[in-house]
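[step 3/7] inverse_fold.run input=structure_tokens len=433
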């Protein structure tokens, strides 16, 4: 073997290592994005691990036997930072975000490919095979992401919009549906021959950009998403019943069931169910069973032990390297499970959770709690075409959470959307009188 043969093999090997390091960093980064989209802060150990991988990647690309290549260092650092900001935007735009973040999120399916030109120029002008490998890998990943998002985005069936959904849509769009559709990139909204319909998501497709449409733009939950919430909530409740877990419908979902006669609130963005941990139903047993059932039935179970919170969403069983990429999507139909434990607080037996819900009072131990006898023994209530477990005194429970729960409060993240919505409902109340 000649010296040049050896250097070719060494070059291929280091390029492959650089490529693998990029994939590992990318995967670790998109995994972290599950936190903001679930309203929690990224965990410190996982953030540090991702940061360390990124530092190692940049160092590997820019260090060689000849010393530090400053140009490669700067280019790899700027490129990865810019790309990761683009990738993170949709996860952060779940909450009210700055205009640049909102802009990047809106174009999140393909914004990574905007770096194709700079990547090409850097790759052709800087003779560093490790840098070239990183640029090619990153752009290939972005191209695959784009292809998958767009291929999955086209297959759902068309749903007609009912009058209520349509009037909310028209009002939030200030009458110009076409401009509204274009401005917010609402791919699902189909306007043809004067008819308005919605290209619905399905369990096997990417979900609608749900949080944008409902929480930010103030639209009603799309019919496809309502359909999926119905299936998912009954699925999760069914799993909990089968494993013997004491559970009940929670928060806004319970409010819908009681106040809206078994329906969802118009703008519902997830279904909340609570579970009481006991000596028999421990955290480990509950999560293990849910993960096992989910893997079998095509659901993704995301576990946040520190927050006592489990998030379940549809996910066809594809075990593959890029699975955490789902965190780049702008929406997700979820059922969230919050955990309660029975404790004694100020001399009374209460069921306590660690995260705040509505106006639930604080407990002696620093959590949030409801009197045990308001919840147990649980009963059932009609919900989305079936029966689901609910607290024994649902009205008293809702009063603790929301005070006068018959009065409608809008939970949109965008105050302008909430205001418009209140006006729509005020008008329709007047017309129905
Ligand atoms: Zn949908």
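[step 3/7] decode complete -> sequence:
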């Amino acid at each position: 073997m000649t010296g040049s043969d050896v250097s070719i093999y060494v070059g291929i090997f280091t390029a492959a290592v650089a490529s693998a390091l990029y994939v590992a960093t990318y995967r670790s980064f998109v995994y972290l994005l599950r936190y903001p989209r679930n309203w929690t802060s990224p965990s410190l150990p996982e953030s540090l691990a991702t940061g360390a991988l990124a530092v190692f990647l940049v160092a590997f690309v820019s260090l060689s036997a000849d010393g530090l290549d400053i140009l490669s260092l700067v280019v790899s650092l700027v490129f990865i930072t810019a790309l990761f900001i683009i990738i993170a935007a949709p996860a952060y735009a779940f909450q009210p975000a700055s205009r640049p973040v909102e802009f990047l999120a809106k174009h999140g399916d393909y914004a990574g490919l905007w770096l194709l030109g700079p990547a090409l120029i850097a790759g052709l002008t800087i003779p560093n095979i490790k840098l070239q490998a990183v640029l090619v890998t990153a752009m290939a990943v972005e191209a695959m992401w784009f292809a998958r998002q767009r291929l999955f985005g086209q297959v759902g069936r068309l749903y007609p919009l009912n009058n209520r959904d349509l009037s909310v849509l028209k009002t939030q769009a200030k009458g110009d549906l076409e401009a509204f559709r274009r401005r917010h990139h609402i791919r699902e909204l189909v306007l043809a021959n004067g008819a308005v319909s919605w290209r619905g998501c399905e369990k096997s497709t990417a979900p609608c950009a749900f949080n944008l449409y409902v929480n930010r733009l103030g639209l009603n939950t799309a019919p496809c998403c309502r359909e999926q919430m119905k299936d998912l909530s009954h699925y999760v409740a069914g799993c909990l019943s089968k494993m013997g877990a004491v559970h009940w419908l929670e928060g806004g979902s319970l409010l819908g069931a009681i106040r809206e006669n078994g329906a969802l609130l118009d703008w519902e963005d997830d279904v909340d169910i609570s579970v009481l941990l006991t000596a028999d139903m421990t955290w480990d047993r509950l999560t293990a069973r849910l993960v096992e059932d989910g893997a079998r039935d095509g659901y993704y179970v995301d576990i946040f032990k520190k927050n006592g919170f489990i998030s379940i969403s549809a996910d066809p069983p594809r075990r593959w390297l890029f699975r955490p990429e789902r965190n780049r999507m702008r929406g997700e139909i979820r059922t969230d499970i919050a955990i309660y434990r029975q404790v004694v607080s100020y001399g009374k037996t209460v069921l306590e959770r660690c995260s705040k819900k509505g106006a639930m009072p604080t407990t002696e131990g620093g959590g949030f709690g409801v009197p045990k006898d308001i919840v147990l023994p649980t009963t059932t209530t009609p919900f989305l075409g079936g029966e689901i477990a609910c607290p024994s005194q649902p009205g008293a429970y809702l009063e603790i959470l929301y005070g006068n729960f018959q009065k409608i409060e809008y939970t949109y993240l965008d105050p302008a959307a909430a205001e418009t919505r209140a006006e729509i409902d005020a008008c329709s109340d007047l017309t129905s009188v």
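[step 4/7] annotate
The mean pLDDT is 88.
The two ends are 91 Å apart (CA to CA).
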